Amino acid sequence: MSLNPAMLAIRFLLELIAIASFGVYGWRAFDSPWKFLLVVLLPLVAAALWGTLAVPGDPSRSGEAPVSVPRAVRLVVELAVFFGGAAVLWAAGLPRWALISVAVLVIYQALAYDRIAWLVKA
């Protein structure tokens, strides 16, 4: 199910939203001049972790892994970025958006159960 083109498109959209959420947090939670730096730096760090730490042969990616990590580590990275995006929305004073984000992520993860099962498998 997780390799369905529609699910991959939804996953990509959720990735972008999660990464952008870190920028929203940087802007809303800090005062100048820090917010100008963090609005760029926090999303870049999240995107770097997301794009760099990968499992070789991951069917949802190109199959290549810039930095090869075990499946369990990749699962932690994915959950940290996805749900971390919701957490920083809450911390930025946007609880309604955070709850909506969590609800959508839980539904997506339930539908993409096969990916989680693949990442948990040793």
Short recap of the structure:
This protein is mainly α and 122 residues long. The chain has five helices and two strands.
Structure description:
With 122 residues, this protein is mostly helical. It has five helices and two strands, in the order H-H-E-E-H-H-H. It has helices at residues 5-29, 34-52, 71-91, 95-111, 113-120, and strands at residues 53-54, 67-68. It is globular and about 45 Å long. The mean pLDDT is 91.
**Would you count the extended β strands for me?**
2
Shape: globular
Helix share, percent: over 70%
Strand content: under 5%
Tell me the strand order in the biggest sheet.
Answer: 1-2
Can you summarize the main beta sheet? 2 strands, parallel
The count of helical stretches stands at: 5
Rg, alpha carbons: 15 Å
Can you tell me the residue ranges where pLDDT is under 50 for at least 5 consecutive residues? none
Order of helices and strands: HHEEHHH
Structural class comes to mainly alpha
- First and last CA, distance: 20 Å
Mean pLDDT across all residues, rounded? Answer: 91
Key phrases:
122 residues, mainly alpha, two-stranded parallel ribbon, 5 helices, 74% helix, 3% strand, globular
